[in-house]
Amino acid sequence: QVHLVESGGGLVPAGGSLKLSCAASGGTFSTQAMGWFRQAPGKEREFVATINWTGGVTNLADSVKGRFTISRDNAKNTLYLQMNSLKPDDTAVYSCAARYYGAFSSNPTDYAYWGQGTQVTVSS
């Protein structure tokens, strides 16, 4: 059973930066593709970024390209999301997720394990 715990969320002014972390335990992190998703109040869950098992291949939503970076440290069993030039529209609960497999995916139904999420609030 994979256990995921996010951290690093908070309140930041527009234009600011945050770095989210997702610590994984209980599984084989280094063989699993990972993803970040977000959900704002009253909206559906939205894909943000995904990374394959080696960290060599990534994919980001168009809305965050050029501002967000996804990365991973397999030695530390940790996934990251560096968020720069934050906008009020980025306000949401951000959750990390793990697949059974190594190939990345932007489809949340492809993910078997989810963290509880961390709140990111961007003030205007």
How is this structure best described in words?
With 124 residues, the chain is mainly beta. Helices cover 0% and strands 48% of the residues. Strands 2, 4, 5, 6, 9, 10 and 11 form a 7-stranded mixed sheet that branches. It has a 4-stranded antiparallel sheet with strand order 1-3-8-7, with no helix packed on it. Strand 7 and strand 8 form a beta hairpin. The radius of gyration is 13 Å and the shape is globular. The mean pLDDT is 96.
Helix content: under 10%
Dominant shape: globular
Q: Strand content of the residues, in percent? A: over 45%
Could you describe the largest sheet, including whether it forms a barrel?
Answer: 7 strands, mixed
What's the number of helices?
0
What class do helices, strands and sheet pairing give?
A: mainly beta
How many strands in all? Answer: 11
The run of helices and strands is: EEEEEEEEEEE
Radius of gyration: 13 Å
- Segments where pLDDT lies below 50 for 5+ residues? none
Mean pLDDT: 96
How far apart the termini lie comes to 40 Å
Oligomer: single chain
